[in-house]
Amino acid sequence: MARATSDKREKRKQRYQEISDWLTAQCATLPPGSAVPSEAQLAEQFKVSRMTARHALETVRAAGRIERRKGVGSFVAQAALHRTESVLRSFSDEIRRRDGEPSSIIIEQGLVVLPSQALLMGLDPHDPMVRIDRVRCSDAVPVAREITYLPGRLRAVLKRDFATASLHQALRELGTTPARATGYVTARLASPEEGELLRQELPAALLVESRTVSDTDGKVIESTETAYVGTRWAMDTAAAVSR
Protein backbone atom coordinates (compact mmCIF):
# COMPACT_ATOMS: atom_id res chain seq x y z
CA MET A 1 0.00 0.00 0.00
CA ALA A 2 2.81 2.40 0.94
CA ARG A 3 4.63 1.67 -2.34
CA ALA A 4 1.44 2.30 -4.34
CA THR A 5 0.89 5.64 -2.59
CA SER A 6 4.51 6.65 -3.22
CA ASP A 7 4.22 5.74 -6.91
CA LYS A 8 1.04 7.80 -7.18
CA ARG A 9 2.73 10.86 -5.65
CA GLU A 10 5.73 10.47 -7.95
CA LYS A 11 3.46 10.24 -10.99
CA ARG A 12 1.59 13.39 -9.91
CA LYS A 13 4.91 15.17 -9.42
CA GLN A 14 6.07 14.17 -12.88
CA ARG A 15 2.81 15.41 -14.40
CA TYR A 16 2.94 18.87 -12.83
CA GLN A 17 6.61 19.15 -13.84
CA GLU A 18 5.68 18.21 -17.39
CA ILE A 19 3.06 20.96 -17.44
CA SER A 20 5.50 23.44 -15.86
CA ASP A 21 8.11 22.66 -18.52
CA TRP A 22 5.53 23.11 -21.27
CA LEU A 23 4.38 26.46 -19.84
CA THR A 24 7.98 27.66 -19.52
CA ALA A 25 8.61 26.80 -23.17
CA GLN A 26 5.46 28.69 -24.16
CA CYS A 27 6.62 31.75 -22.22
CA ALA A 28 9.90 31.71 -24.14
CA THR A 29 8.09 32.06 -27.46
CA LEU A 30 5.11 34.29 -26.59
CA PRO A 31 5.40 38.09 -26.15
CA PRO A 32 4.96 39.55 -22.65
CA GLY A 33 1.31 40.06 -21.75
CA SER A 34 0.11 37.05 -23.73
CA ALA A 35 -2.51 34.94 -21.98
CA VAL A 36 -1.59 31.39 -20.96
CA PRO A 37 -4.09 28.56 -20.40
CA SER A 38 -6.15 28.55 -17.22
CA GLU A 39 -6.17 25.80 -14.60
CA ALA A 40 -9.28 24.31 -16.18
CA GLN A 41 -7.79 24.42 -19.68
CA LEU A 42 -4.52 22.82 -18.52
CA ALA A 43 -6.39 20.14 -16.59
CA GLU A 44 -8.37 19.30 -19.72
CA GLN A 45 -5.36 19.47 -22.07
CA PHE A 46 -3.11 17.27 -19.94
CA LYS A 47 -5.86 15.09 -18.41
CA VAL A 48 -4.91 15.93 -14.83
CA SER A 49 -6.72 17.31 -11.80
CA ARG A 50 -7.10 21.04 -11.36
CA MET A 51 -4.91 20.79 -8.26
CA THR A 52 -2.04 19.45 -10.39
CA ALA A 53 -2.63 22.18 -12.98
CA ARG A 54 -2.70 24.83 -10.25
CA HIS A 55 0.60 23.52 -8.84
CA ALA A 56 2.19 23.79 -12.27
CA LEU A 57 0.97 27.38 -12.75
CA GLU A 58 2.22 28.36 -9.30
CA THR A 59 5.64 26.82 -10.01
CA VAL A 60 6.00 28.88 -13.20
CA ARG A 61 4.72 32.01 -11.45
CA ALA A 62 7.26 31.56 -8.61
CA ALA A 63 9.99 31.40 -11.25
CA GLY A 64 8.87 34.81 -12.55
CA ARG A 65 7.77 33.56 -15.97
CA ILE A 66 4.05 34.35 -15.62
CA GLU A 67 1.84 36.73 -13.66
CA ARG A 68 -1.50 35.66 -12.27
CA ARG A 69 -4.13 38.41 -12.03
CA LYS A 70 -6.97 37.64 -9.69
CA GLY A 71 -10.23 37.21 -11.53
CA VAL A 72 -8.57 37.75 -14.91
CA GLY A 73 -6.11 34.94 -15.65
CA SER A 74 -2.42 34.23 -16.17
CA PHE A 75 -0.12 36.11 -18.54
CA VAL A 76 3.48 35.91 -19.77
CA ALA A 77 5.55 38.18 -17.50
CA GLN A 78 7.70 41.05 -18.65
CA ALA A 79 11.42 40.32 -18.54
CA ALA A 80 13.03 41.77 -15.40
CA LEU A 81 14.51 45.25 -15.84
CA HIS A 82 18.11 45.52 -14.65
CA ARG A 83 19.59 48.57 -12.96
CA THR A 84 23.26 49.16 -12.24
CA GLU A 85 23.64 49.70 -8.51
CA SER A 86 26.37 52.34 -8.63
CA VAL A 87 24.76 54.71 -11.15
CA LEU A 88 22.15 57.33 -10.20
CA ARG A 89 19.56 57.52 -12.96
CA SER A 90 15.92 58.49 -12.86
CA PHE A 91 13.31 55.81 -13.46
CA SER A 92 12.45 57.43 -16.80
CA ASP A 93 16.09 57.33 -17.92
CA GLU A 94 16.40 53.68 -16.88
CA ILE A 95 13.37 52.65 -18.92
CA ARG A 96 14.38 54.66 -22.00
CA ARG A 97 17.85 53.08 -21.92
CA ARG A 98 16.05 49.79 -22.54
CA ASP A 99 13.96 51.20 -25.39
CA GLY A 100 10.86 51.25 -23.20
CA GLU A 101 8.31 54.00 -22.69
CA PRO A 102 8.10 55.27 -19.09
CA SER A 103 4.87 56.59 -17.63
CA SER A 104 3.18 56.96 -14.26
CA ILE A 105 -0.25 56.69 -12.74
CA ILE A 106 -0.66 59.48 -10.18
CA ILE A 107 -2.32 58.32 -6.98
CA GLU A 108 -1.89 61.56 -5.06
CA GLN A 109 0.38 64.61 -5.02
CA GLY A 110 0.45 67.82 -3.02
CA LEU A 111 1.80 69.44 0.15
CA VAL A 112 1.79 67.63 3.50
CA VAL A 113 3.07 68.31 7.02
CA LEU A 114 4.76 65.16 8.30
CA PRO A 115 7.19 65.92 11.13
CA SER A 116 8.78 62.45 11.29
CA GLN A 117 9.64 62.49 7.59
CA ALA A 118 10.86 66.09 7.73
CA LEU A 119 13.25 65.28 10.58
CA LEU A 120 14.70 62.35 8.63
CA MET A 121 15.50 64.79 5.82
CA GLY A 122 16.97 67.42 8.15
CA LEU A 123 14.04 69.81 7.58
CA ASP A 124 11.91 71.89 9.93
CA PRO A 125 9.21 69.45 11.17
CA HIS A 126 6.55 72.17 10.94
CA ASP A 127 7.21 73.07 7.30
CA PRO A 128 5.12 71.54 4.52
CA MET A 129 6.77 69.07 2.16
CA VAL A 130 5.95 67.92 -1.36
CA ARG A 131 4.56 64.37 -1.50
CA ILE A 132 4.16 62.49 -4.79
CA ASP A 133 2.59 59.03 -4.74
CA ARG A 134 2.52 57.22 -8.09
CA VAL A 135 2.72 53.87 -9.86
CA ARG A 136 5.70 53.69 -12.23
CA CYS A 137 5.14 51.88 -15.51
CA SER A 138 7.21 50.54 -18.39
CA ASP A 139 5.29 50.27 -21.66
CA ALA A 140 2.09 50.74 -19.62
CA VAL A 141 2.93 47.74 -17.36
CA PRO A 142 3.15 48.64 -13.62
CA VAL A 143 6.67 48.06 -12.32
CA ALA A 144 6.66 49.81 -8.94
CA ARG A 145 4.77 51.97 -6.47
CA GLU A 146 6.82 55.04 -5.54
CA ILE A 147 6.29 57.61 -2.79
CA THR A 148 8.57 60.66 -2.89
CA TYR A 149 9.07 63.55 -0.47
CA LEU A 150 10.76 66.85 -1.38
CA PRO A 151 11.45 70.00 0.65
CA GLY A 152 8.60 72.50 0.44
CA ARG A 153 10.87 75.01 -1.31
CA LEU A 154 10.66 72.76 -4.37
CA ARG A 155 6.86 72.91 -4.54
CA ALA A 156 7.03 74.37 -8.04
CA VAL A 157 7.48 70.79 -9.32
CA LEU A 158 3.78 70.22 -8.58
CA LYS A 159 2.99 72.22 -11.71
CA ARG A 160 4.42 69.36 -13.79
CA ASP A 161 2.39 66.46 -15.10
CA PHE A 162 4.19 63.51 -13.56
CA ALA A 163 2.10 61.04 -15.51
CA THR A 164 4.75 61.55 -18.21
CA ALA A 165 7.34 63.99 -16.79
CA SER A 166 10.60 62.98 -15.09
CA LEU A 167 10.98 64.33 -11.55
CA HIS A 168 14.76 64.65 -11.81
CA GLN A 169 14.46 66.53 -15.09
CA ALA A 170 11.91 68.86 -13.49
CA LEU A 171 14.31 69.49 -10.60
CA ARG A 172 17.15 70.32 -12.98
CA GLU A 173 14.95 72.78 -14.85
CA LEU A 174 14.25 74.48 -11.50
CA GLY A 175 17.98 74.83 -10.89
CA THR A 176 18.37 71.89 -8.49
CA THR A 177 20.68 69.09 -9.64
CA PRO A 178 20.47 65.60 -8.10
CA ALA A 179 24.09 64.59 -7.48
CA ARG A 180 24.37 61.74 -4.99
CA ALA A 181 22.10 58.99 -3.73
CA THR A 182 22.38 56.68 -0.75
CA GLY A 183 19.98 53.99 0.30
CA TYR A 184 19.27 50.34 0.92
CA VAL A 185 17.04 47.57 -0.41
CA THR A 186 14.80 45.26 1.61
CA ALA A 187 12.15 42.70 0.71
CA ARG A 188 8.56 42.29 1.86
CA LEU A 189 5.18 41.07 0.70
CA ALA A 190 2.82 43.41 -1.10
CA SER A 191 -0.15 44.83 0.80
CA PRO A 192 -3.65 44.36 -0.66
CA GLU A 193 -3.52 47.97 -1.93
CA GLU A 194 -0.15 47.41 -3.59
CA GLY A 195 -1.35 44.16 -5.12
CA GLU A 196 -4.26 46.04 -6.66
CA LEU A 197 -2.13 48.92 -7.94
CA LEU A 198 0.58 46.66 -9.35
CA ARG A 199 -1.83 44.04 -10.75
CA GLN A 200 -0.35 41.27 -8.63
CA GLU A 201 -2.05 38.21 -7.24
CA LEU A 202 -1.20 37.92 -3.55
CA PRO A 203 1.07 36.85 -2.01
CA ALA A 204 3.55 38.80 -4.15
CA ALA A 205 7.15 39.70 -3.29
CA LEU A 206 8.40 43.29 -3.53
CA LEU A 207 11.92 44.70 -3.57
CA VAL A 208 11.76 47.96 -1.61
CA GLU A 209 14.41 50.61 -2.18
CA SER A 210 14.65 53.44 0.35
CA ARG A 211 16.72 56.25 -1.15
CA THR A 212 17.92 59.73 -0.16
CA VAL A 213 19.18 62.10 -2.85
CA SER A 214 21.37 65.16 -2.27
CA ASP A 215 22.18 68.06 -4.58
CA THR A 216 25.62 69.37 -5.55
CA ASP A 217 25.79 71.32 -2.26
CA GLY A 218 25.13 68.19 -0.21
CA LYS A 219 21.60 69.26 0.78
CA VAL A 220 18.91 66.57 0.87
CA ILE A 221 16.39 67.20 -1.90
CA GLU A 222 14.55 63.89 -2.10
CA SER A 223 13.51 60.94 0.04
CA THR A 224 11.88 58.11 -1.87
CA GLU A 225 10.55 54.64 -1.17
CA THR A 226 10.07 52.55 -4.31
CA ALA A 227 8.42 49.14 -4.03
CA TYR A 228 9.31 47.14 -7.15
CA VAL A 229 7.50 43.99 -8.26
CA GLY A 230 10.09 41.32 -7.49
CA THR A 231 9.70 39.56 -10.84
CA ARG A 232 9.93 42.79 -12.87
CA TRP A 233 13.05 44.42 -11.46
CA ALA A 234 16.63 43.37 -10.74
CA MET A 235 19.61 45.26 -9.39
CA ASP A 236 23.05 44.43 -10.78
CA THR A 237 25.93 44.53 -8.31
CA ALA A 238 29.71 44.33 -8.55
CA ALA A 239 32.40 44.25 -5.86
CA ALA A 240 36.03 43.37 -5.44
CA VAL A 241 36.75 40.00 -3.84
CA SER A 242 38.13 40.21 -0.29
CA ARG A 243 41.64 38.78 -0.01
Automatic annotation (TrEMBL):
| Keyword check for Transcription | yes
Asked if NADP is a keyword of the record, the answer is: no
- Source species, domain of life: Bacteria
| InterPro entries for the chain | Bact_HTH_transcr_reg, Chorismate_lyase_/UTRA_dom_sf, Tscrpt_reg_HTH_GntR, UTRA, WH-like_DNA-bd_sf, WH_DNA-bd_sf
**Residues covered by the HTH gntR-type domain:** 9-79
Secretion signal, residue range per the UniProt entry: none
* Pfam families found in the cross-reference section: GntR, UTRA
Keywords, in A-Z order: DNA-binding, Transcription, Transcription regulation
Protein name per its UniProtKB record: GntR family transcriptional regulator
Q: Which organism is it from?
A: Arachnia rubra
